Amino acid sequence: MSGAAASGAAAAAAAVAGAAAGWLCAPVTVAYRGPLTPRARTGVAVLTGAVLAALAVRLGGRADSVAFAYLGVVGVLLTVIDAGVRRLPDRLTLPSYLAGGALLAAAVPVTAHGALRFAHAVIGMAVLWAFYFVQHFLLPHAMGGGDVKLAGVLGLYLGWLGEAAWVTGVVAGFLFGGVYSVTWLLLGRAGRKDELPYGPFMLAGALTGILFGGWFAR
């Protein structure tokens, strides 16, 4: 099987597995968003499948792919919840520190420079958490506590992939969120003091860093 065919097969398998995981995990959102319609549940499944397929193309069969698949599933759930009710539940973010750290640590022995990568992951987590915490402390109406907790998780994953992915993911998140906020202000859909969901843009930025951070570093 050629490299392209193998990559396509891996992406297809990841899409199916992701869709199944999204379908099974979608009920988690009910506690926050209310009743889950079949259409909404299908949407969660399709989005999760698409995210995991993209990650499979980027990571292939690497040992850290399981860790990133976990982030993909949880990330979609957080996106759906935050977009609907402006909340990033501790029930999903806090366990992700332990789960993400454990899954990345498990990949250390079979990953080139694994120990160094893990050290970068821990540093990336701490720096991004601190960066968001300062923003939350200075502008609590603009940056919620849930965003701070999510930032640490994303910093962990982006740090594992390296400086280019970390910087790309952080900048992309701010860019996506800024464009959305300005657009809504210009359209009169939101005021300057209205709270807008920032988690989905943080997650979209992180996905951008994961998928394209290496490309920008070339």
UniProtKB/TrEMBL annotation:
Stretches that traverse the bilayer: 43-60, 67-85, 97-116, 123-144, 164-187, 199-217
UniProt GO molecular function: aspartic-type endopeptidase activity
Keywords recorded for this protein, A-Z: Membrane, Transmembrane, Transmembrane helix
Chain segments annotated as coiled-coil in the UniProt record: none
GO term, biological process aspect, one: signal peptide processing
InterPro entries the UniProt entry points to: Peptidase_A24A_bac (IPR014032), Prepilin_IV_endopep_pep (IPR000045), Prepilin_peptidase/N-MTase (IPR050882)
The Prepilin type IV endopeptidase peptidase domain, residue ranges: 73-181
Pfam families hit by this protein: Peptidase_A24
UniProt GO cellular component terms: plasma membrane
Family per similarity comment: Belongs to the peptidase A24 family.
PANTHER family referenced in this protein's UniProt entry, alphabetically: PREPILIN LEADER PEPTIDASE_N-METHYLTRANSFERASE-RELATED (PTHR30487:SF0), TYPE 4 PREPILIN-LIKE PROTEINS LEADER PEPTIDE-PROCESSING ENZYME (PTHR30487)
Protein name (Swiss-Prot/TrEMBL): Prepilin peptidase
Organism the protein comes from: Actinomadura physcomitrii
Lineage of the species this protein comes from: Bacteria, Bacillati, Actinomycetota, Actinomycetes, Streptosporangiales
